[in-house]
Design brief:
single chain; 339 residues; mainly beta; Neuraminidase; 1 helix
Amino acid sequence: MRRALILIALLFPSVALADPTPAAGWKLEVLPLGLKQPSGLAWSNGLIVTDLASGRVVRVEANGALTDLTQPLPVGIDVMGQPTGPYKVKVFGPPFLEHSIFVSQGWPDANAAPAPTDHAILSFANPQETPRIVSSDFWNPYDFEFMLRPIDSVDILVIDAGKNALLRLEGNAAKIVYEFPRLKREPSEMSELSPTEFANGAAPYEVDAVPTGLAISDNRAWVALFGGFPFTPKGGAVVSLALESEGAVPRTEVEDLNTPVDVEFTPAGELLILEMGVFDMASGFVPGTGKLSIVDLRTGKPELLVGALDQPTGLLARTDDEIYISALSGHVYRLKRAP
């Protein structure tokens, strides 16, 4: 089901959850921002956050106040019943690009008339100007990154969680670099979700390889494959793809992940992976099962940094010792190495 996926924000009844738990040597604090569904994270003279509930893109000032960086962007509910709006935010400005703040804007609201800003990459420089449409040649642009070229130009790479592809912008047109093939699930994997449907003897089942997180390192695109519905236990992965080789195919870097939703490299080059959590066929994504891990790329083995997160969705490594996490439960966390 190609459209299943993207940004999952299922609404659960209120339940008592354990607080997220940082690993030894780290301290986790909640930033009291008052946003209902924080998603994208970036840094420019302070933390920048997008909110899928209000459409706001805000900077957190030193005194904790929120400054709007643009007019509220469209939000709503997509055809899958999930929240849509400003997913991710990045900062990349002059001299390479005219504007400095970029946002990926998701599926259109299923209950509203089409708008020019639907399924687009937008840019803006201040709250007074109307956001510029960099390109709307997408189905559902979830995450994106900038890549400097040797001739002092910049590529914009986008993962499209509707086309299930990695794309490169050429002007305002999006060219597919790689389309991720469907993932095969054996009946033994699926039986935990539905023992009656996927009993012994059932045929293998294919799901979409839905990309949700993107990072660039050493001329390779590192992509979190969230997977497609139904989300099997440990059915997600992180793969990397050489960007300079025509016809390159992805290399699996980390497997056995529960719906990885974002990836990021620390300044020191360590890979961070954010997992939304475990999926249950009866109730949806299980609250408190999300986690953040750091990976030793020599072994591919993840080490837990934060557990018991509820619907985490965004990740920012400001320094090696300071990491920010957003969660659709309404939280923004700051993870700092303990002194």
